[in-house]
Every structure is written in C-alpha cells, then in structure tokens.
Amino acid sequence: MSLKQRLVPYWLLGPGLLWLVVFFVVPMYFMGELALRSGSLTTGYTFDWAWSNFPDSLSGHTEQISRSFFYAGTATILALLIAYPLAYAIAFRAGRFKLLLLFAVIAPFFTTYLIRTIAWKTILSDDSPIVGVLQTLALVPPDGRVLATSGAVIAGLTYNFLPFMILPLYANLERLDLRLIEAAKDLYSSSRQAFLKVTLPLTMPGIVAGVLLTFIPAFGDYINAQLLGGTQQAMVGNVIQSLYLNQRNYPEAAALSFLMMALILAVVTIYIRFAGTGAFMGDEDEEAAR
Amino acid sequence: MNGQGASGRLPAPLAGAWAWLRRNALSIYACLAVAYMLIPIVVIAVFSFGDTPKDKLTFGLDNGFTLEYWSSIFSLPELNEALLTSLKLAALSTAISTAIGTLMAIALVRHKFHGRRVANLLIVIPMATPEVVIGASLLSMFVYYSVAPGFSTLLLAHVMFSISFVVVVVRSRLIGFDRNLEEAAADLGATPLTTFRTVTLPLLAPGILAAAMLAFALSIDDFVISNFNSGPTQTFPLYVYGVSLRGIPIQVNALATLLFAVTVVAVALVLVQQRRAERLAAVRPTPIPAPGAPAAT
Amino acid sequence: MGAGETSVRKRALAVALTICAIVLSLGVAACGDDTVGGGGNSDEVTTAKGGPVSGDLAISNWPGYMDPGSNNTVAQFEKETGVSVDYIEDVNENEAFFGKMQPQLEQGESGGRSIFIVTDWMAKQMYDLGYLQEIDHGELPTVFENIRPQLEDVSFDPGRKFSVPWVSGMGGIWVDTAKAPEIRSVNDLFDPKYKGKVTMLSELRETVPLVMLAEGIDPIEASNEDWLNAIDRIKEAADSGQIRRFTGNDYTEDLTAGNIVAAIGWSGDASIVENENAEWRMPAEGCALWSDNMVIPVGAPNTGAAYGWMNFIYEPEVNAPLAEYITYIPPVEGVQDLVEPELAKDPLVFPSPEFTRNCTDQDSPPDLEPVNEAWQEVITG
User: Fold this and answer.
1) ipTM of the complex model
2) What pTM, to 2 d.p., does this model score?
3) B65-122, pLDDT tens digit by residue?
4) Which chains have at least 3 CB atom pairs separated by less than 8 Å from chain C?
5) DSSP letters spanning B138-188
6) Most exposed residue of A63, B193, C108, C286, measured as fewest CB within 10 angstroms of its CB?
7) Are strands C288-297 and C132-133 parallel, antiparallel or unpaired?
8) What residues of chain A lie within 8 A of the CB of C369, using their CB?
C-alpha cells in the first residue's frame, strides 16, 4: 500500500480527534489534576497528590452506584425489547413511509425533557385513571403510587433513552436483506429459528450500538431520578451533581466521575467481548482478521 | 408461542381472528409502540388548547377549550429567540458532528492503522463522562483562555458531545458491509472520491440520517452542559427550565406541538414530492418492500 | 512494504507527538496557578465607584422577576436615562449560577454583568470569597430612603454593605386544605397519617431552619449540633417514606396534581399552584424570611449605571407594577399604597410586622461544610 493510502485513516480521523482532544481531553486533564487537590472552597484547593479523594468519594455512595447499575441495566433491556420490534416494523412494514414513521417516533424528543417529563408526571399522578387501572390489575398496590418510586425512574430512563436504541437498530436493520431470511426459513422452516440464526446475528452490530448508547448515558443520568424519583432513588449522577454544585467539593466530584467512567469502561469492555463484536473497540478479533 | 395448539382448540371464527392476530402481531405491536412514543406529545398538544385561568402550564384537566395560545403562539419574544437559537445551534452542531463523525466511523471500520485503540477509547469516554463534569471543565478552559461564553462555545461543546454518538451509530451500519459494490466501482475506473459519493454514501445514508437525528435530539435537549457554557445566550431548554420556576407559559406547549407537526409534515411532503418525481420520470425501481415479509416473532 | 511501513510509523508518531504537545501546552498552561478557588481577591475589598448613569448595563436576574411588555420597567429605565440595558434571565438556581460564574469571578471578571440577583446566603458566600464589591451608600440615596426598615439590617449583611434587596419572600407550608386542613405547623408534616404525601425543599437553608423553628430552636442562634439533629430527624422521615421527595420549585406540580397534601414551599408561588384548595400557611412557630438581592460583582463595568438602576427600582412608582407582577414582598416602602387594592390587602405580599413576628432571617449554619455534607447525604439518599 502506498504511503498516501496509509495516511488516509489519519486524515479521516483528524478533524474529529482534534475536536475531541481540544474540547474533551484538555478539560479532562484539568479535571484529573483537580481530583488530586485538597482543601475547601474558602481556603482554596491546593494540588498535593491527594489520592485519598478517590476512596473518600466512594464512601457512602456505593449504594447509589449499584442502584445506577440496576436502573440503567433494566432500562436498557426494556428499551431493547420495545425498540427492536418497532425498528423492525419501521424498516420492513412501513413501505415508502418508513422515514415518516421514523421521524414521527423521534420528533417528540425534540421537545425539551422538562415538558416531556411534566407530561409523564401528569399521566402517572397518584389520582390519575391510569394508576387506577394499574391498581385494579394489582400491578401497583391498592394504596400505592407510581411516581416517586424506582419503577418511575426506570420508566423515565427507558422512555427518554429510546431514541438512542431505536436509531442504531433502524440504521442496522434497514440494510438487512430479506432474501436471506426467506432462505433461512426454507432451511430451518420455523420463523423463530430463522430469527435466532439469521436475523439476530446479522443485526448484532445494531444491538451492540443501541445497548451502548442507552446504557452509558443512562448510568450517569440524574434528571430522571430527580424529577420522577423519591427520597430513596438517587443515582450516582445525582451524587456527582450534588458534590459539584451543592457541596462545592470539586476534588471529590472529579474523583467520583473518574471512578464512574472507569467502571463504565470496564462494563462496556466486558460486554463487548461477550457480545463478540470486537470491532467496536478495535479488539483482537479484528486485529487477528487482518 | 404455541399458536397452532391454541387455534386448534378454538371455534372457527375465533381461530380466524387468532390467525389474523398472529399474522399481524408485529404491526399491531408497532402501532402500540408508536402510540407509546407519542403519548407525551399528545398530552402536550391537548393542553395547548386548554384554557387555564392563569395562562400558566399546569396540566390541570378541568380547563375549557381555547385557541388563545395558538393565536398568540409567537407573542413571547424571549421564547421565540430561545427556540430559534436552539434550532440554529442544533442544525449547525448536527451538520458538523455528523460530517466529522461519519469520517471517523469510516476510518475506524475500513482502515487498519496504529492508534486505533486509543481513538476508540477517546470516542467512548465522552459518553461516559457526567455532564456536569464536561460542562464545568469546558467552562474553566474557556474562561482560562478568555473565550467569552456564548453561542460559539455552545456550538463547540455540542459538537464535542455529539461526535461519539454519531460515530457509534454510523459504525454499526458500516460493520460487515458488503464492499463488493465499491470494489466494482473502483474496477470500473471510478476515482475514490467518485466511488465514495456515488456508492458508499448512498449505502450509508440511513446510518447517517439516524446519527444526524440523534445528534439533533441531543443538542436541542441539552441542559447541563449548555447551562455552564451559554454565557448570556438562552437556548430552548434553558428558557423552559427558567420559566418553570414561575410557571411555564402555554405558548411553550403550542410551539413544541408546532415543532413536532412541522417536522412530520415536512418529511411527508418530501416523500410525496419524491414519489411524484419518480412517477414523472416513469422509473419504477420499487425495491421489494414485501408486504408478506417474515415477522420477527 | 517495509520502507512504507517505517515511514508510516514515523508519521503516526509525529501525529501522536503533535497531539501530546497540544494537550500538554494547553493543559499545563491551564494548571499554571497553584490554587483553585479560595477567592483570589479577598484581601482587598473594593467599593463600587459611582459615575454617570449612561452607557451599557448588563443585569443577571431570575426568571419571572420582571414585568413583561415593550413598555416595562427596563424600557422605562432606558427611556429615562439613555442607558442600554442587557437584561439576562439566567439565574435559575443559586448553586448553578455560582457554578457558571465562579471561574470568571475567580479571574476578577463578571462576565460583562454589573448586577447579579442572588439569595442572601449566596450573596454572603460570594462576598466572603471576594467576588463582590461593597456598595457606597452615598451613591444610593433613593434606596436607603425608601427601603423597608426591617430590611435595613439583616444577619447575613449587617448594615447592607454589599447587598440591596430586589424582592423578599417567606418559606412556610403549602397545604391542600381539602385533604389536610389541620396542618398548621412543620411538626404536622411528620405525622404518620400523611406518609408519602409530604414534600420538603432540597435547599438546606430553607428546610432545616423551619424544622428547627418547629422544635423551638432559633435558627440564627443554632449550633452545628442543632442543625445536625434537625437533619437527623428529616433523614429518619425520608428513610421511612414519610417524605415523598425533596423538591425545588417543582413541588407546585405535585400540589397541583394532588400527589401531596402538604409541602414546604414559598409564599409567592400562588400564581403557579393551580389547586384551588391549596393555600400557603404561616407555620404556627414562624417562617424563614429571605430576600433575593442585587449585588455588584468584582470586575463589573459601568457601576455608575448600576447605582442608577438600583435607585430607579426603589422609586415606589417604579416598583409598584413590578410588585403586582412578581407577587412576592416588595422591599420598597410606599408601594402598598400604589398597587391594586386587592393585592394591597394580601398579607403574603404586604405582611404586617405582627404577621411575621416569629419569623427569622435565613442563615447558614456556623460551620457549613459538615452540615451541608450531612444534608446532601439525605437529599441523595
């Protein structure tokens, strides 16, 4: 390969990497340094390699971290279950109006989160008929409520992150060659098997992308817990928000953020190995395939 | 699902219904899912016609019907300005981040080069960073270099946090892509640029569109990072959050509904226009959308 | 391929090095100074200079604190003085606003603004960090002629050295009288009868002093111990599910939707609570009084026009339409005679000294950090 061709990827990556380096890495470098400072707002924060910020920021917050994991994980699974058939139907059943349907489904997310959430709060308020129905169906205890519970936070996360699941799934499903499925049906004779052996593997890149795009931001989210949760639903995002804005403990806020980012990266790496789509992180599978 | 067994025991008309239900299960499910996605916008639209005594959004259900807020939909200059700013910001940020991110995705999937892992890491990490940390650290940097916060810093920030999402979406479309078409084009003497423009780009289009929609939604909905880096500029979410402290004017509902309606109608018009153009050109390349396509279930 | 490979490696290395160099030069420069925070200018507090009332003036205020329309208070000020006003509604929360301005204030810059409007404790925090200039009473004749006497001397700023009230309000209890007519004290909010039907504000200086008052402790005199005890009581109620949520202004949504029977909330929110049975009640044991104040930040341009603005706002004729729109307590004497009669009779907008006799100023705990940490742990439970 010529030198010129060899340099192509760097040219393609160049603008984006430069943008991320200048507007993400540089500020983060500043944050990393802040995480090693000690002091208070009044005395000022002095740089003294205060590694203790890291364990300190965790103390008393492990519950919120495991809660975030549970909420974001559940919401991601629910979103996948809702989005996959929907994206499939849009891609294959909507004919030439598939774009219209796609926009109709995504456009509600162009209104701002606050109005959307207030709308949901109205629908799910304690006296609303919907909650009454849920109570009759025994899905909610007779004197129970939906708002200010873990269920409400998970439902909020699920809804608000659905576009992050639908869009990559759609982009991926849309190119699926239906003739392959026909052929698979001829081979396996059952729709379910055809789905499991052909459709699912072929759309795996879309699923992996959707799961990542949903799980990662949902894990760090704080708005849903703040607006829809009660007193026992705070997530790690709420803790970081509070450390930063309310307690002005910049070092611990930065330290906890880095720990959270490391945790997410670890989870993502394990997940990607498990899902077998190494190409996402430039894994050995890909390198071996060279 | 043991549909066969169930239909066997059912009387004929019911069995017919059951079979119909089974055949159309996916479509029915899709309709339900679409309805679910639209619930908030329907509520928002309904209450934009509600006559509230104090002209403030309360979502109370005992209101009369009124067109007052629709006839005065543009009567709040600050709201108009905030929405316009947000639309402009989202459009620019979407255009830039989609272009940059698509190039990155192509590089990462199509090319082997040193430093891929680092590049991958750099793309995933911003998504995992708490917004308050991104917002605050960016502001610190802007202030340090005496860049006054405003529309331009908002644009820089929005492009930054959108890039990763674009890359992941476009890349999921690219992985496992059939490269034969491109190679064929190259064999036929097309320059790389021509191949890209006439073959790669059209094949990628749905991925790019999905990424752009996500970038747009991210930008027009962002509050935390914008709040830090906006300076005196007001965006739509900042405006709504602010007025929510003293009661959201109902024109916000009407405008949100209008935004939704305009988006959908515009897409519909484009589709109708396309169809007419196709008919006029008397070309019928209907790409087998298959009414009887197999269901996923 | 060998030769090409080497040269590609070299190129890649060069690219990587360039990126590293950019990061390092930007990053190291950004970390040049040794301390972050701590208020760089706390040694020399300056007093804002007077001057001609002209030129440009930028003001950061809360949303809903300015009457709308093309002939509103801002427009009148512009017409009368020729000053061109940039009125920015970007103070949504004290903390978030502080977070946004702090890096600039640390550099001695005010982001082009000459006036901020922030709550008492935030004004004090900014002052203590050296982010504010003191005000010259000689430049504010109208203000100190017309200010309500109760506001002249407050615990967070004795003698009004750096703050001029914009508007005042009371923290108390909102009650849905159809569902819980008997709630009259903050103590009633802890009644198991109302389990899960009560909200409190997430702001430390709003909720905790009210709970202390209910226990017979004067928040101004309270020790750290008292604060921590009150927080313990609230924590227990939060853990048991007695308290439904900790809220910002959004308690009004829960009240409107009927999700709660009572909330700790503000006296001026009647305009956004759409529940005809809901009313604000002065707790039997008293309320917490606060003000949002105009302050002049360090590095503020055109402080002459800022003084001009403050004097203008304190003209009763100017303040009356503002008071009618805001529906919190105006700080200007004589406004009561100029507003609509119905509003003039409203004790929540024009409270008599008798009405507020048990109320205290809002204040921070003696040693903020441990108290705030304990409180935030309750909020993010």
Assistant:
1) 0.88
2) 0.88
3) 888 888 888 888 889 999 999 999 999 999 999 999 999 998 888 887 888 888 888 8
4) A, B
5) HHHHHHHTTPPPSHHHHHHHHHHHHHHHHHHHHHHHHTT---HHHHHHHHT
6) B193
7) antiparallel
8) 40, 247
